[in-house]
Amino acid sequence: MLTGAEYLESLDDGRITIFEGQRVTDLPGHTVLGAAVHRVAAGYEWLAANAVDGQSPLAGVPTSPEELRAKVDVVHHAGMMAHVTYTSIMTLATAAGRIKDAAPGYIEPIQAFIEDAHRRDIRITQCITDAKGDRSRPPGKQDDPDQYVRVVDRQADGVVIRGAKLHITGASLGHELLTIPTKAMKAGEEDYAIACMVPVNAPGVKIINTTYAPRHADTRDFPVSGKDAAPEGFVIFDDVFVPRDRVFLDGEVSLAAMFAHSLGLWERLGGLSGMADQADMLVGLAQLVAESNGLAGEAHIKEKISEMIIHATVVRACLEACLTHAQIGPFGAAFPDELYTNAGKYTGAANYSLMVRHLHDIAGGAIVTAPSISDLESAEVGGLARKYMSGASGDGEYRTRLFHLIRDLTADAYGGWQAVTAIQAGGGLYAQRIVTRKHYDLDRARALARHAAGVEA
Ligand SMILES: Cc1cc2nc3c(=O)[nH]c(=O)nc-3n(C[C@H](O)[C@H](O)[C@H](O)COP(=O)(O)OP(=O)(O)OC[C@H]3O[C@@H](n4cnc5c(N)ncnc54)[C@H](O)[C@@H]3O)c2cc1C
């Protein structure tokens, strides 16, 4: 297993990663990106401290609903990069099961990579979303053929790929890029049916980073984003050579969607488990700020918090259901139930803005105007700031810190990122609606309706 220090050293591998127009040569020491890098290192340390027989608890594919549940908890604790790595490995394991009969030649390279990834204890990010150009046109009908990642050259020992994958969470902080088609492909689109694994430092890979990490010198006013702000990567493949043993699909258009569909399940399971905890935290925050404002007993406040509790409970119920109803699939791996996973992720995402609306309504304007911690420490105004921030709790700093957390989570740069992420990450609401409908037993629902109406088919 890698230590945190070894992880930090591993990033010094010649990778081309850019932030605001400048090449980043020291990721751990970078003023804006550095905190996220150290957070990943801390995740490695946490996993080492929780190792089982010298093995990372991240390693291994779950083979029962109980193991799946335990893995979800581990991934949740170990941080974003552990989450995307686990999701990538499970995507490959799932896809291997789905393509094994139609394209058996790819199973060995996929399984060899999974073993190698566990042995090296690396972090893998998921490159699915293409630039896509004109959304109304398929890959092969774009004015610029590079709008979807494609093979531009096939050689005896590998392929050369070109294109870009956008919004890739943590791309610059990992070691390998799982690169897979974003959608189904048709005959004539063989060059776009490419799935492969690309090292972050491969010649031709260039990553532009964006981040919602706070730029303030004092991050105490940013209790979440000050510590936890994985950058998003705009990953460019500028004619990148991929050796044959790292190619997991090349040209089989009928199988192109298998990888993205496999990933969708695991990505949404991660999203759903994050949303379940997040919803409970928003409920707790609403209750604490209501108490601190002296209004926790007010009927309209209690009604809003009750509505938040119902939402949080329904999201958690979907998480519980998708784990409890996990199915054992190819190679003995345990898979969360698709219907509950997708319906739960959709519900969490679609109602997120309602949770935030209630929280903002309950808390008041100090969400965006509360003084900073350093203001509270000021010899000149600190005492007065504490006095007037005290509310019903009697402690101005306590109430101020609640407001800082609400702003950071829901009303500042990270809050904006959260709002968009809830809707778009994991494929967007539209994708979750499609998958939910596909797995719902519509025939049973129709039969029930017919029976109640007293009509036959
Ligand atoms: C913070 C964040 C992190 C992310 N992390 C990752 C990651 O790690 N890896 C990764 O691969 N992706 C990641 N994504 C990307 C995410 O999956 C996409 O944002 C999402 O799939 C939507 O794609 P898009 O942004 O290109 O928007 P678009 O595809 O342009 O969608 C915008 C809207 O147009 C609709 N639309 C698009 N095309 C059509 C069409 N042909 N017909 C009808 N309607 C259409 C969509 O349904 C949607 O409503 C992340 C996104 C965010 C915001």
Write up what this structure looks like:
The chain is of the alpha+beta class and 457 residues long. The protein has a domain at 258-446: Butyryl-CoA Dehydrogenase, subunit A, domain 3 (Up-down Bundle), CATH 1.20.140. The protein has 16 helices and twelve strands. Strands 2-1-8-9-5-4 form a six-stranded mixed β-sheet, with helices on one face. The protein has a four-stranded mixed β-sheet with strand order 3-6-7-10. The protein has a two-stranded antiparallel ribbon with strand order 11-12. α6 (256-293) crosses α8 (338-350) and α7 runs antiparallel to α8 (338-350). The radius of gyration is 24 Å and the shape is globular. The termini are far apart. Flavin-adenine dinucleotide binds next to β3, β5, α14 and α15. Flavin-adenine dinucleotide is lined by residues 126-129, 132, 135-136, 165, 167-169, 232, 417, 420-421, 424-425, 427-428, 430.
In one word, what is the shape? globular
The run of helices and strands is HEEHHHHEEEEEEEEHHEEHHHHHHHHH
For the largest beta-sheet, the strand count, sense and barrel status come to: 6 strands, mixed
What is the first-to-last residue Cα distance? 60 Å
Overall average residue pLDDT: 94
Number of helices: 16
CATH hierarchy, class of the domain at 258-446: Mainly Alpha
Strand order of the largest sheet: 2-1-8-9-5-4
Could you tell me which ligands this complex binds, including any ions or cofactors?
Answer: flavin-adenine dinucleotide
CATH topology description of the domain at 258-446: Butyryl-CoA Dehydrogenase, subunit A, domain 3
Question: How many distinct beta strands?
Answer: 12
Examine the secondary-structure arrangement and name the CATH architecture of the domain at 258-446: Up-down Bundle
